[in-house]
Design a protein that fits this description.
- By secondary structure, this protein is mainly beta.
- It has 3 domains: 9-118 and 503-553, no CATH class; 125-136 and 294-498, Jelly Rolls (Sandwich); 141-290, Sandwich (Jelly Rolls).
- The chain is 8% helix and 44% strand.
- The strands form 7 sheets. Strands 10, 11, 12, 13, 14, 15, 16, 17, 18, 19 and 20 form an 11-stranded antiparallel beta sheet that branches.
- The longest helix has 25 residues, at 529-553.
- The model is unreliable at 519-528 (pLDDT under 50).
């Protein structure tokens, strides 16, 4: 084998032939510092490399160096790290023989993200959601579940024509316990609801989410949730609309509640849920909880995880990866904070599945950029299916940039930039449409995915891999994001356009050749071609034997 000066160990690696992978695929390998049993895409280096993996090198079969990137977000010194290796040969045609070198205590790192991926990483990512995770529970605390009629008490205010009764119900329960039947009756009040006045203040400061199950009857009533401090004058509040039929799990980040005065989650005294009805009606509520986790992980590292109201996990844009389907009737994802951006880019893959709703003919993609109340990206639901990015100016005038989607029922790549002076909208890497815009309003609205808070425009379709960047990207960067998988997490705060097929190519690492113990001890920088060919053929013969044996045993 070839042992360049200073390196101790060489490991042959076979990158498997993979349909669709092509040339320059960035294959993934996990390096483990200690001892262990190698497996597909995992190799144990037995403590013979530097603890920071800076001496690791990769070459092609001719021992020419090839690019690699040690992924800092996965790196733990002296334990393990993930690395992406750029394989020059066409893996769609044949497997590739690579070599890995390590064991040089004086070597410095040659990790290179700019040249390993299809294009250089796009920095400034402040939020990125691939929307493929299932809901995750962290430390849920149940507020009310069984015998809710005893937990809650009725609330009425003002002069009107309605009243309310609360009873336990078993016919509409969802988890084996009684649910709460909310019966809006004829009466003498304008405002009705239900409340809990705690004898002892509740400390919810370590919690993140307020959640409950609600059986909608499409009354159209707007319900307000008020969380009050002991004096009653300081409180948080948030509304939801009963504009759907059937069960929904409604999850609201505490960060998205508005506030009056200076309330504190550390001293919660009174929970009040109320509405101003316009007719008699019946609703059901079940299991009230706080802190039920997140359902849209922010991969940017900024922790702006979202919480879904409704939505369904479905197959996404990328084979083998999921996305979120929104029903156009209230499904959305709320993120607790919105960065105050003076320039931005938002990108997403969106598949329209039908009309958004009878009265609101637009599909909200992302709302709440730079905290402006009317600022975001949506798809008009008319004959042209125009993508519209809009920004509301200080004088309340609207400015928008439109671009037409040519096909519905398939995924379209939507991208919009704002550089502080103009909006530019792109669809599937088409030439941008620009509109001049002056300073936006600043009213501190949270980010909403799948919902344009203005006019309740809800998306009816599938959203996959949505991201928010703190500047206007270049045309070249936009093209790279369109043509490749937008991988967030490889470089902190950046999105890396990389190649992607499913399944991804596998790597098989062969036993090591060591400078001291190997019976092949070449010192030149270029091994004779005949020896390299012999090694390659031997490895391929062993691989074919294993494949044949596997077929015989299956």
């Amino acid at each position: 084998m070839v042992f360049p000066e200073g390196w101790k160990t060489i490991r042959p690696i076979i990158a498997a032939q993979t349909v669709g992978a092509g040339a320059n695929y960035q294959v993934k390998l996990t390096l483990h510092f200690g001892k262990g049993a190698d497996s597909a895409n995992h190799v144990y280096l037995g403590g013979e490399c530097r603890s920071d993996f800076a001496d690791v090198r990769f070459t092609n079969e001719n021992h020419s160096l090839i690019y690699h990137h040690i992924i800092p977000t996965s790196y733990v010194e002296g334990v393990s790290t993930d690395v992406r290796i750029k394989v020059p040969s066409d893996l769609s045609v044949a497997s590739a023989l690579l070599f890995m070198y390590y064991g040089n205590p004086t070597a410095t790192s040659t990790s290179d993200a700019n040249n390993t991926y299809v294009a250089a990483p796009v920095s400034g990512v402040v939020g990125a959601w691939n929307l493929e995770e299932a809901d995750t529970e962290q430390s849920p605390t149940v507020i009310a579940d069984d015998d809710q009629a005893a937990f809650w008490s009725t609330y009425t205010a003002g002069v009107g024509a309605y009243g309310i009764t609360l009873t336990n119900d078993t016919t509409n329960e969802t988890d084996g316990t009684d649910c709460l039947k909310i019966d809006i009756t004829a009466g003498a009040s304008a405002t009705i609801g239900f409340q809990k006045n705690y004898a002892v203040n509740q400390n919810w400061s370590t919690k993140s989410i307020f959640a409950f199950k609600w059986v909608g009857t499409n009354t159209g009533f707007t319900w307000t949730i008020a969380l009050r401090s002991p004096d009653g004058a300081n409180f948080f509040w948030k509304t939801f609309v009963d504009n759907f039929i059937g069960l929904q799990i409604i999850k609201i980040p505490f960060g998205s509640f508005a506030s009056v005065g200076s309330p504190s989650l550390a001293t919660m005294k009174w929970v009040l849920i109320y509405t101003n009805p316009t007719s008699t009606a019946i609703n059901y509520a079940d299991r009230w909880m706080i802190d039920v986790g997140v359902s849209a992980v922010d991969s940017s590292g900024n922790g702006n995880h979202g919480v879904a109201t409704g939505t369904t996990i479905v197959a996404g844009k990328w084979t083998g990866k999921n996305a979120r389907q929104f029903n156009g009737l209230g499904d959305h994802i709320a993120c607790p904070s919105s960065p105050n951006l003076t320039a931005w880019t938002v990108y997403a893959w969106f598949k329209r599945l039908g009309g958004s709703s009878a009265t609101n003919k637009a599909h909200g993609i992302l709302h709440g950029l730079n905290q402006a109340i009317n600022n975001g990206l949506y798809v008009n639901d008319d004959a042209t299916l125009a993508v519209q990015a809009y920004q509301q100016e200080a004088d309340l005038a609207f400015k928008s940039s439109n671009k037409t989607i040519s096909n519905s029922g398939i995924f379209n790549f939507l991208l919009c930039t704002y550089d502080g002076t103009q909006l530019i909208t792109k669809v599937n890497d088409s030439a941008g449409t620009a509109t001049a815009v002056t300073a936006p309003r600043d009213t501190n609205q949270p980010l909403q995915i799948g919902w344009l808070a203005l006019n309740y425009y809800y998306a009816n379709g599938i959203i996959s891999d949505i991201g928010l960047i703190d500047h206007a990207v270049t045309d070249a960067e936009a093209t790279a994001l369109y043509n490749n998988f937008p991988d967030v997490g490889l470089v902190a705060g950046s999105v890396c356009p990389r190649k992607y097929v499913y399944p991804e190519p596998t790597l098989t690492v062969r036993p090591a050749f060591n400078r001291e113990s190997s019976n092949i001890r070449l010192t030149s920088e270029a091994a004779p071609k005949a020896i390299l060919e012999g090694i390659k053929q031997l490895l391929q013969i062993r691989q074919r034997k294993r494949q044949l044996l596997a077929k015989l045993l299956s």
